[in-house]
């Protein structure tokens, strides 16, 4: 479980094929966090398990993760290349402050950026997969590439959501680099998914 409050941006060092998928190595930069193998880290919103250190073994700088084909197909991780920047967040402790919202790190789908408005108010418009729109609500929560955000506007008919980004988010996450045509991981709010699932499958019984 995560909060959607990004700790730092990391850089992909290498992506090497393995029998189980790929070994993804990430340089966390100056992030002073030292996970153990088996710990969970959200990489641009996708919960991954630390498998060891970076390239060259457990003593090398950075973190390494084993990413399976299912994850590569259904998230933006399959499109990463060396040099790509990613958002990083360690898992939530039971006694942690919850400044964002509950983010599971289970990506629901990949959306496309359809517009970026830069200026006094920085807004990003995203087209989620059609089946995710039923979980989107005005002023509701959504995770985009692991960042906890509030939906500022949406159109159910046209199938888009819009978020407003504050300067801090632009500075410390990859969202400030987004341009039309970019793809990003989307995780809908777990509370919205639970309510919609109940209404669709049990409320009429």
Short description:
This protein is mainly beta and 205 residues long.
Overall geometric form: globular
Give the beta-strand count. Answer: 12
Output the structural class.
mainly beta
Distance between the termini: 32 Å
Q: What Rg, in angstroms, do the CA atoms define?
A: 17 Å
Mean pLDDT score: 92
Q: Strands of the biggest beta sheet: in what spatial order?
A: 1-2-5-4-3-6
Number of domains: 2
CATH topology category name of the largest domain: Elongation Factor Tu (Ef-tu), domain 3
Assigned CATH architecture of the largest domain: Beta Barrel
Q: What's the number of helices?
A: 3
Strand content: 35-45%
Extract low-pLDDT stretches. 56-60
Top-tier CATH class of the largest domain: Mainly Beta
Helix % is 10-25%
SSE map:
Blueprint: E1 8-18, E2 21-27, E3 40-43, E4 46-52, E5 63-67, H1 69-74, E6 85-90, E7 109-117, E8 122-127, E9 141-144, E10 147-155, E11 160-165, H2 167-172, E12 183-188, H3 190-201
Describe it.
The chain is mainly β and 205 residues long. It has two domains: 8-90, Beta Barrel (Elongation Factor Tu (Ef-tu), domain 3), CATH 2.40.30.20; 109-201, Elongation Factor Tu (Ef-tu), domain 3, CATH 2.40.30. 12% of the residues lie in helices and 39% in strands. It has three helices and twelve strands. Strands 1-2-5-4-3-6 form a six-stranded antiparallel beta barrel. It has a six-stranded antiparallel barrel with strand order 7-8-11-10-9-12. β7 (109-117) and β8 (122-127) form a beta hairpin. Mean pLDDT is 92; it is low at 56-60.
């Amino acid at each position: 479980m995560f909060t959607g409050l990004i700790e730092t941006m990391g850089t992909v060092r290498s992506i090497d094929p393995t029998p189980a998928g790929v070994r993804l190595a990430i340089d966390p930069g100056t992030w002073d966090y030292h996970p153990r193998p088996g710990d969970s880290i959200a990489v641009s919103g996708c919960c991954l398990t630390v498998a060891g250190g970076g390239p060259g073994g457990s003593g090398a700088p950075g973190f390494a993760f084993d990413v399976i084909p299912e994850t590569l197909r259904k998230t933006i991780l399959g499109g990463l290349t060396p040099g790509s920047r990613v958002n990083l967040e360690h898992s939530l402790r039971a006694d942690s402050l919850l400044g964002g919202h509950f983010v599971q790190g289970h990506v629901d789908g990949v959306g496309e950026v359809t517009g970026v408005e830069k200026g006094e108010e920085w807004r990003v418009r995203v087209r989620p997969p059609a089946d995710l729109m039923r979980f989107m609500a005005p002023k509701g929560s959504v995770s985009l590439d692991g960042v906890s955000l509030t939906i500022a506007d949406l159109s159910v008919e046209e199938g888009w959501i819009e978020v407003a980004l504050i300067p801090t988010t632009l500075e410390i996450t990859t969202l400030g680099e987004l341009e039309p045509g970019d793809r990003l991981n989307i995780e809908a709010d777990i509370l919205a998914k639970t309510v919609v699932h109940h209404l669709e499958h049990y409320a009429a019984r």
